[in-house]
Write a structure and sequence with these properties.
Elements (H helix, E strand, L loop, with lengths): L2 H37 L3 H4 L1 H24 L1 H20 L4 H27 L4 H32 L4 H4 L1 H15 L13 H21 L6 H24 L13 H7 L1 H22 L5 H49 L8 H26 L8 H30 L5 H14 L2 H8 L12
Helix pairs in contact: 1-3, 1-5, 1-6, 1-8, 3-4, 3-5, 3-9, 3-15, 4-5, 4-8, 5-15, 6-12, 6-13, 6-14, 9-10, 9-15, 11-14, 12-13, 12-14, 12-15, 12-16, 12-17, 13-14, 13-16, 13-17, 15-16
């Protein structure tokens, strides 16, 4: 087995673990009504399965970099996958809702360690000239999982039972652990540095407040004032975290990477894109079910074309980025996401099905190209020794962005329903997601034309 083939196999293996974690975080949404009936709980209570998972992941991700240094990346990844798989089985066998909620917390903790460590295993020693290639393997789970989750989830709850939402993780988890034990080399464990307990607590509180606030806002206008207060307080604590990480002698992770433009823009405008990536498949699925009165399976089959666009363009993304440069590729992708989001606002029940499929497909193409470009660019100027901290910081920011995406669009649609019909509210929701692309466009326009050239020479 030559070195290159082994690196690619490891990248694909890590991508499989990312796929399992991201899919699990999104597919549960379609099963919530069935689970509420099964456990005899209300919709607000059962929705805790989503928010608790996302908040737990956000809280424990900052620990991943320190744990990887202290105990080794391979060991942390394998243990995380095993715990994630076992907690998935426990979720399916849960005798009551309280037990299920505890298992979701455990699953969130393991997911928080698994996802950043998987990326770090691939990226830490990859030379800049090969970053774009390796990133292309890692990015597909983030694109595919949210797009196929509605159709898979709809099929499972329609024809099987909600337990299979979790049981599908069992074979995936077992297979990738067995392969990982054999394929991944044992890595060097670095000298332990003091654990930044204050930094961890501050980041945990800030992340939890922001996500809890956005989740609380989805429960109706009676909660909006409290939700806003939590979000503002979380952001204020976030500034405290920033100052602490900047001045601490042994911070939980370094924020020096933010001084590098190519990395910083992924945390700013890239976060807006992550937000849209999570929100668009969700709002399109709910729109087709609520306004068009389609079944979950039919709605999911149309949203699936986002996935088709993601995969269809994947063999060509690296070539496009090398041809247009990062700046040109990003601007092109923003244009596709903007146009398709606006166009989806004008679909009707009489719209030709092929047109809806086409819009979803082009949206998927734009998302795939943008995320590949952003991820390749973000580490293009980061020294290998600094990639652990940069990876941890990036994971924290992207997790918050993805977690806020569905909540934000839900609040926007609910707010619009105060003044408009539900149909009009959803249409303005699509327009809102399209207009969000203006911020990334403005930021990328001011980038140097040759930014990130080291990865595409």
């Amino acid at each position: 087995m030559n070195r290159m083939s082994k690196e690619i196999k490891i990248a694909l293996l890590m991508a499989a673990s990312l796929f399992m974690e991201i899919l699990d975080g999104t597919i549960v949404t379609t099963a919530l009504p069935k689970m509420a009936q099964y456990f005899h709980t209300g919709s607000a209570t059962i929705a805790l399965l989503i928010s608790v998972y996302l908040i737990t992941v956000a809280i424990f991700i900052p620990l991943s970099g320190w744990m990887a240094n202290r105990f080794g990346k391979k060991k942390i990844w394998i243990v995380a996958v095993i715990v994630f798989t076992l907690s998935s089985l426990s979720n399916a066998l849960a005798p009551n809702f309280s037990f299920l909620l505890v298992m979701r917390i455990i699953q969130g903790i393991s997911g928080a360690f698994m996802t950043p460590t998987a990326r770090l295993i691939v990226l830490e020693k990859t030379p800049a000239s090969r970053l774009l290639q390796m990133i292309s393997y890692l990015i597909w789970p983030a694109l595919i999982a949210p797009a196929i989750a509605p159709v898979i989830g709809g099929f499972i709850v329609t024809y099987w039972s909600w337990q299979w939402i979790f049981l599908i993780n069992i074979p995936i988890g077992l297979i990738i652990v067995l392969i990982g034990i054999k394929l991944i080399d044992n890595d060097q464990v670095h000298k332990a540095v003091p654990f930044d307990i204050l930094g961890f607590i501050e980041i945990a509180v800030s992340s939890a407040m922001i996500l809890l606030g956005t989740e609380l806002a989805t429960h109706g206008k009676n909660y909006w004032f409290s939700a806003l207060g939590l979000i503002v307080l979380g952001v204020i604590i976030g500034f405290v975290v920033f100052k602490h990480l900047k001045k601490a002698e042994n911070p939980l992770f370094s924020i020096d990477s933010l001084k590098i433009t190519s990395f910083r823009i992924f945390q700013t405008s890239g976060s807006v894109l992550w937000l849209c990536v999570g929100a668009l498949p969700y709002i399109l699925t709910i729109f087709l079910q609520t306004v068009f009165h389609w079944s979950p399976v039919k709605a999911g089959s149309y949203v699936l074309f986002i996935f088709v666009g993601n995969i269809g363009i994947k063999p060509f993304t690296n070539m496009i980025i090398r041809k247009l440069g990062y700046k040109g590729a990003l601007l092109s992708s923003f244009g596709m996401v903007f146009i398709t989001s606006i166009a989806l606002a004008f679909i009707e029940t009489t719209t030709l099905p092929i047109w809806i499929m086409f819009l979803a497909l082009i949206s998927g193409v734009g998302r795939s190209l943008a995320l590949t470009a952003y991820n390749g660019l973000s580490f293009s100027e980061i020294e290998p020794k600094n990639r652990n901290s940069a990876n941890t910081l990036s994971a924290v920011v992207s997790t918050l962005a993805q977690g806020m995406g569905i909540s934000l669009i839900t609040v926007v649609v609910n707010l619009l329903q105060i003044f408009f019909t539900i149909t009009t509210a959803y249409k303005f929701g699509f327009i809102f997601l399209g207009l969000l692309m203006l911020f990334p466009v403005i930021e990328v326009l001011f980038l140097p034309k040759n930014i990130g050239h080291a990865t595409i020479r």
